[in-house]
Amino acid sequence: MERRFSVRETLETVSDLTPEQLDRYIRAGVVQPVQSQDGPLFREIDIARLSLIVDLAEGYHLNDEAMALVMSLLDQLHGLHGDMRALLDAVAQEPPETRARLSHTIHEVRVILRR
């Protein structure tokens, strides 16, 4: 079972994260804690996101709207990465002649797209 972090544990774990920032990020939908009878709980992925958010906020001085946009784009990129991994795994299971044909076609399409 995945570990869950309380608000206090989250603030202790994520350097430079203040309670006010955490509330803002929750309201902005940048992180979505799991609600429990003991209050909000944060997953390990939330801790990683919050660490990244704090680094971005400090390094680039992004406001909440820009932060939500950046995190949305990162989520989309991560989703596309998973899709690409699944596609590559599926192609790897095809016979060699199919893989060669696909490789050739992909190369041709990329050449066309670069023009």
Description:
With 115 residues, this protein is mostly helical. It has one domain: Multidrug-efflux Transporter Regulator, Chain: A, Domain 2 (Orthogonal Bundle), CATH 1.10.1660.10. Helix content is 70%, strand content 5%. It has five helices and two strands, in the order ααββααα. The protein has a two-stranded antiparallel sheet. The chain is elongated. The termini are far apart. The model has no long low-confidence stretch (mean pLDDT 93).
Protein traits:
single chain; 115 residues; mainly alpha; Multidrug-efflux Transporter Regulator, Chain: A, Domain 2; two-stranded antiparallel ribbon; 70% helix
Order of helices and strands: HHEEHHH
The protein's oligomeric status is single chain
Which outline best applies?
elongated
Question: What value does the average pLDDT take?
Answer: 93
CATH class: Mainly Alpha
Q: Kindly report the spatial arrangement of strands forming the biggest sheet.
A: 1-2
- Can you tell me the residue ranges where pLDDT is under 50 for at least 5 consecutive residues? none
Total number of helices: 5
What is the CATH topology classification name?
A: Multidrug-efflux Transporter Regulator, Chain: A, Domain 2
Approximately what portion of the residues adopt beta-strand conformation? 5-15%
CATH architecture term? Orthogonal Bundle
Alpha-carbon Rg, integer: 20 Å
Class inferred from helices and paired strands: mainly alpha
Largest sheet composition: 2 strands, antiparallel
Kindly, what is the distance between the CA atoms of the first and last residues, rounded to a whole number of angstroms? Answer: 50 Å
**Care to count the β-strands?**
2
Helix content: over 70%
The total domain count is 1
